[in-house]
Design brief:
single chain; alpha+beta; five-stranded mixed β-sheet; 11 helices; 7 strands; about 65% helix
Length: about 425
């Protein structure tokens, strides 16, 4: 099993400081910095050598051109090595998920020259970081093991103007304590330098701001297309369910209710208990048929596909117990998904008005304004409605947001309540 440091671990509590020297993440960070120093030195030498040759042979026209070609080829190879090093130890690609340019376009891109700059920066910095980490670990190890090898040191030494003996017990204890402290501090140093190494690589090898904006724009475009396809698929599935229920279960319930009605009318000579069972079954069948019809109509009414929002909303208003004025003023029919959302909003809003608002009148207006479909539902009820919590209006807000729409509510205590929904004209 290969251990990898996925990014870098979050800063841990002080209680874990004592275990840092033996953690895998510490040694992965140390390996990253150490390998970075070696690769950076090789990359710097490989880039600098053709430059020096090109300068030396500058009198020739061909030599600088060949040197430039060699430099860019070497830079691309060294960059691949650096990316492989960081990715192998951290599972983070500093260049992101962007594909590299074709070989013939590579010299013309800004990324190529940023990579050249990276190797000139990463070379000395990487060497310095590797030397610092190596000195910290080796110095800490040597000092911490002073009792084992102090006898090999000279019997007398000087620290500035002070004379001291490394063989003295106090000196050995001081060296041991200093070594242990250095070993405990080395993991933090290695992790910090590994973070700095990754930051430098991301700065020079990662996408530029322009490339990042272009990538985000492409991603947003793909997400918008995916969202639109999902909404359309969900709407198509609702229409399929509506057709299946209308043509299947609803027709069977109608047939069952008719047969029970015929039996109830013709079988008058049956015992009274049997007649009661048939009568209850007949009423239950009619009730189930009514509930299923209302459910199908709320799911996706067939009239919405056939005649559009005007007819569908007028039919919905006609079935509402209170008077509802409907005005639809759209120059053209919106998409099926937007029609479905608009119908659902009006249906749920009128249901809430009837159940909770204690209103005597409502109005539904659907217009097009400034490139948007504006839907307004107003009632003269008692007000106090809210989209907070788990109310039905919160569900309406989520349904509207699924097509990039917005929902606003004005419902002061005492009324009136105004629900305004704005939908994009195209999805």
């Amino acid at each position: 099993m290969i251990l990898r440091l996925r990014g870098f671990p979050a800063r841990e509590g002080i209680g874990a400081w004592w275990s840092a020297p033996v953690r895998a993440t510490t040694w992965l960070a140390t390996a990253q910095v150490a390998a970075g120093g070696a690769v950076a030195l090789a990359g710097l030498a490989a880039v600098a050598m053709p430059i020096a040759v090109g300068i030396e042979l500058a009198r020739s026209v061909v030599a600088p051109v060949l040197a430039l070609v060699v430099i860019l080829a070497v830079v691309r190879v060294c960059t691949a090595l650096q990316r492989s090093r960081i990715t192998a130890l951290t599972d983070v690609d500093p260049a992101g998920d962007r594909p590299g340019p074709a070989w013939w376009r590579y010299p013309l891109t800004a990324g190529a020259w940023r990579q050249v700059a990276y190797h000139f920066v990463a070379g000395p910095v990487g060497l310095a970081m590797a030397a610092l980490v190596g000195a910290a670990w080796s110095g800490g190890l040597l000092l911490a093991t002073a009792p084992a090898h102090a006898w090999t040191l000279p019997s007398h030494g000087r620290l500035g103007s002070l004379a001291w003996s490394p063989h003295a017990p106090l000196a050995i204890v001081a060296m041991t304590v200093a070594g242990l402290l250095l070993l405990l501090l080395s993991p933090a140093l290695a992790t910090a330098l590994a973070r700095a190494d990754l930051a430098i690589a991301r700065t020079f090898l990662g996408p530029t701001r322009r490339e990042e904006r272009a990538r985000l724009t492409r991603r947003m475009s793909r997400l918008a297309e995916s969202r639109a396809a999902t909404v359309e698929a969900a709407d198509a599935e609702r229409r399929r369910i509506e057709r299946d229920l209308h043509d299947g279960a609803q027709q069977r319930l109608v047939s069952l209710a008719m047969n029970l009605g015929i039996a109830r009318a013709m079988l008058k000579d049956l015992p009274e208990p049997a007649l009661e069972v048939i009568a209850r079954s007949h009423e239950d069948a009619k009730l189930a048929m009514t509930e299923l019809r209302d459910f199908v109509r709320g799911l996706h009414p067939a009239v919405l596909d056939e005649l559009g929002l005007d007819a569908a909303l007028s039919g919905l208003a006609a079935r509402t117990p209170i008077p509802v004025d409907v005005r639809v003023d759209l120059p053209e029919r919106p998409s099926a998904a937007l029609e479905s959302v608009a119908y659902f909003v009006v249906s749920e809003a009128l249901t809430n008005v009837v159940k909770h608002a204690d209103a005597s009148h409502a109005e539904v207006v659907l217009t097009r304004l400034n490139g948007q479909i504006v839907l307004t539902v107003v009632d003269d009820g008692r007000g106090g409605a809210s989209t907070a919590g788990g109310s039905g209006l919160a569900g309406l807000s989520r349904r509207v947001a699924s097509v990039d729409g917005t929902l606003s509510l004005s419902s002061p205590t005492g009324g009136p309540t105004r629900l305004t929904v704005k939908l994009p004209c195209a999805l």
